[in-house]
Design a protein that fits this description.
alpha+beta, Beta-Lactamase, Heat Shock Protein 90, 5-stranded antiparallel β-sheet, 5-stranded mixed β-sheet, 49% helix, 22% strand, disordered C terminus
Length: 383
């Protein structure tokens, strides 16, 4: 009997070293079985990589998420790292094995999903050494998607707020002018003009009511309003906006030229009206008082797209400011009233519906805005 076995038998006469070895081997096999059983039944992606960077075990969800197979077992993690789709995973494993510290970080895999990755050292207590790591991946894509949705809703709310405040300015201004006219007509006992201006005032009030109603509907959560877009007649909306700006057009002595083809687009009604209103209102504001002013509006269709052009012969936009016209709070002329938000709002509204807007301008000659909308069948196809 070897000395170690003899020494042990003196204290444990009922056991031999062979029996002890068999018991230890049995315990080791039981531990390996328990670990394998855990890995085969867990519902989250997990990997067990030993100290030699050999992939020893993985869970079924890891097999599904990272396209692993049983042929990948006992291969170096270096050889299967591309399946995991996270480029620095090997370096992170080495760091944990070296330091013994748990590593937690949010990672995005190459397929666009986000995970909270936890690399935990696997300690062998009896030998007091790290014999590998267990890597856990918790899918947190929903969290990032929720943040993106929150950002989208905040941006949408911001645009709606600016659009409402901007679009309400004109009917409010018109109502102030009409009130002054009503006072004068009342003083002069001018019943004919008094009735005419009363009708105009009522029309401005209805315009404001429609704007607020549209804003309220657009502000509702998406689940309460399953379809925010509808098939709109572009010519009809243009005529409505021209009519709402009639007083301003008359006071600036501006002629409207219409080149309208029948065209429909799939678009939120209040956004469409706000876009046309902003473009036409700007053309009026930046008209040249030394010219016979005109604004030409054109609607055409071509290859699944609808085009709206608004062209004026006004003062134009200085070359150095043309690059910034669609930026937030960009003022083109400090002497002309405005917030600098109109074209910023317009661009965001158009691009949110997969459209585009372009501008061409020559100082002293005028400005042309081209808006590209999707026709209804094209919009449905893309959605």
């Amino acid at each position: 009997m070897a000395s170690a076995e003899k020494f042990f038998s003196e204290f444990h006469p009922n056991y031999s070293m062979k029996e002890i070895n068999r018991n230890n081997l049995s315990r080791l096999r039981n531990l390996e079985f328990d670990l394998a059983n855990y890995f085969s039944n867990t519902i989250i992606p997990q990997l067990f990589v030993d100290a030699d960077l050999i992939l020893r075990l993985f869970t079924p969800p890891a097999m599904k998420q990272f396209s692993l197979s049983h042929h990948d077992l006992y291969r170096s993690i270096e050889d299967v790292k591309d399946n995991i789709k996270y480029p620095t995973v090997v370096e992170n494993i080495k760091e944990v094995i070296k330091t013994g510290r748990v590593l937690e970080k949010e990672v995005q895999t190459t397929d666009g999903k986000w995970y909270e990755m936890n690399i935990q050292p696997y300690n062998e207590v009896e030998e007091d050494r790290i014999n590998g790591v267990i890597i856990t991946f918790v899918d947190i894509s929903y969290r990032f998607n929720a943040l993106k949705e929150l950002e989208r809703l905040n941006a949408k709310h911001e645009v709606l707020m600016f659009a409402l405040s901007h679009d309400l300015r004109q009917p409010i201004s018109s109502m102030m002018l009409l009130l002054n006219g009503l006072r004068e007509a009342n003083k002069r006992k001018d019943g004919e003009n008094f009735e005419k201006w009363m009708q105009s005032l009522e029309k401005s009030l209805h315009t404001m009511k429609d704007l607020v109603t549209d804003f309220t509907e657009e502000s509702q959560p998406d689940e309460e309003k399953p379809q925010e877009k509808s098939i709109m007649d572009l010519q009809e909306i243009c005529e409505s906006v021209i009519d709402s700006l009639k007083e301003m057009l008359v006071s600036h002595n501006i002629k409207i030229i219409r080149n309208f083809e029948s065209a429909q687009i799939n678009f939120p009604r209040n956004n469409l009206r706000s876009i046309i209103y902003n473009l036409l209102h700007n053309a009026i504001k930046f008209s040249d008082p030394n010219k016979d002013s005109k604004i030409e509006m054109t609607i055409t269709s071509f290859q699944g797209r609808v085009f709206l052009c608004v062209e004026d012969n006004g003062i134009g936009i200085p070359a150095e400011k043309q690059r910034d016209i669609f930026k937030k709070s960009s003022r083109l002329n400090q002497e002309i009233a405005g917030t600098g938000m109109g074209l910023y709002i317009v661009k965001r509204m158009i691009e949110s519906q997969e459209g585009r807007i372009k501008m061409e301008s020559t100082p002293g000659e005028g400005t042309l805005f081209k808006v590209f909308f999707q026709a209804p069948f094209q919009a449905k196809k893309s959605g």
